[in-house]
Amino acid sequence: MLIGQQFKDGLKNMAKFAKPKTQAHNVIKGLTKSKLIKSLGTARNYEQSLNTVASWAKDIGINGIQAMTIDQALNYLDYRKEIVGQKSLDMERQAIQAMMRLNGKLKDKQTLPVIKSINQQILKSRAYTTEQAQIISKHQTSKYSLSTQIALSSGLRAHELLTIAKVEERKADKRPAFDSKWSGRNGVLYTVTGKGGLTREVLIPHDLSAKLELRKLKQPATVVDRNINYLQRYDIGGGKKWSDSFNKASNRTLSFSNGAHGLRHSYAQERLLELILNQYPYQIALETVSQEMGHFRPEITEVYLR
Fold first, then answer.
1. Considering Cα of 193, then 138, then 182, then 233, what sign does the dihedral take?
2. What is the set of domains in the chain, with CATH numbers?
3. 32-81: per-residue pLDDT in tens?
């Protein structure tokens, strides 16, 4: 059931000026009035979820949750999969889904794809040593091997490998940064687009940058990974295909796999140790690693240190 245009416009106007909590409450009022939800418990859970969504939307510059696109919703869920468990992630997806049915961005029976939480995987997984990662990369094709080396040396997520661009081509979003960022390391600055659509700078060592530039595409190409479109500028592996290649090579050579995400753990642990050995206090070092990895929340980075 789709609501009238006047009611939709009213909700958008309220979202434009309202606080996240008020935005969420207004959506729930619309869902209840249109009978898209009937349970008080569901209404309460959805409102709590949408409050979180609205806060995120505000942080990245979306003009209220009613202005969110389907792609932005998927970016949000992809961001949240590292932070919350599957039950909470499903609740947030269902709340966004109901909202988008209310405002007509989804048809009555249309759904958002299910995103799998990796929160528990992060808590349980372990870092690879540099030697182990090198062994794995030698048993991959050159396309995927280079991706493994870049992911290890720059702390990239699987899908971020698909988004690498030179800083001259795409600027990073403005975020606070310590002077200690990249301290003690040399390389070429690129940008990647990570969780929640945030574009940040990453440092790729000179030797890997030279290999990367040899694989630059004449024209950027759109690739689809886990139902999300990415504009790829380099002919390297990324996303699920690279993760699958990494897992197979790890199992084949080491007889186990911690998953490609284990390389993020490797980066976090190695980089933190570097900074501490260079006389940076622990909290400064932790915040620096958080900025380099695109967390911008040290408490998330800390789970990578286990």
1. negative
2. 5-117 (no CATH), 123-305 (1.10.443.10)
3. 998 888 788 888 999 999 999 998 888 778 888 889 999 999 988 988 88
